């Protein structure tokens, strides 16, 4: 089998996953750890579904004094109702401030980027049309990535 890292001329490659890309990176890391020199999950999570909702609620309680928080929490709560690109775009724009610690202080700077964000709907349902919930907490904790002996 051709390995993607072969195209780079290295036996293993580092992998970075950001936000939803973190779920893709987690999946790859858990299924092909021998192909990785390392994995970085940035602004991602090891879990979806009800547990993720609980964690967002805990985050909201800790940051209740943030005036922009209700909008972000509402966007997260709308995730299960997404059914098209317009819905995905609305949620992506709604959660955008969560990615920047100083968003409200720099809204004039970040606003144009937020307005330009678009999303593409990808169903979160499995083949049986039930939510495909991810919980990689235990398996990620046990993940080891082979070390290259030449580094």
Order of helices and strands: EHEHHHHH
Measured as a percent range, the helix fraction is 40-55%
Number of domains: 2
Widest β-sheet, arrangement of strands: 1-2
Number of helices: 6
The first-to-last residue Cα distance is 25 Å
What report would you give on this structure?
There is one protein chain. By secondary structure, the protein is mainly α. The protein has two domains: 4-45 and 135-142, no CATH class; 50-116, no CATH class. 40% of the residues lie in helices and 9% in strands. The chain is built from six helices and two strands, in the order βαβααααα. The chain has helices at 20-31, 50-62, 69-77, 85-95, 107-116, 137-142, and strands spanning 13-18, 36-42. Strands 1-2 form a two-stranded parallel ribbon. Helix 1 (20-31) links the parallel strand 1 (13-18) and strand 2. The longest helix has 13 residues, at 50-62. The radius of gyration is 18 Å and the shape is globular. The model has no long low-confidence stretch (mean pLDDT 83).
């Amino acid at each position: 089998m051709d390995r993607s890292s072969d195209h780079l001329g290295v036996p293993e490659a580092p992998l970075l996953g950001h936000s939803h890309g973190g779920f893709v990176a987690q999946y790859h890391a858990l299924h092909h750890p021998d192909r990785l020199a390392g994995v970085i999950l940035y602004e991602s999570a090891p879990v979806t579904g009800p547990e993720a909702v609980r964690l967002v609620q805990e985050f909201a309680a800790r940051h209740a004094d943030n005036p922009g928080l209700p909008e972000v929490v509402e966007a997260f709560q709308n995730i299960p109702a997404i059914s098209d690109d317009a819905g995905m775009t609305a949620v992506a724009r709604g959660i955008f401030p969560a990615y920047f610690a100083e968003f409200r202080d720099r809204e004039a700077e970040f606003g144009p980027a937020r307005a330009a964000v678009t999303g593409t709907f990808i169903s979160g349902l499995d083949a049986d049309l039930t939510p495909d919930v991810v919980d990689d907490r235990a398996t990620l904790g046990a993940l080891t990535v082979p070390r290259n002996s030449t580094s």
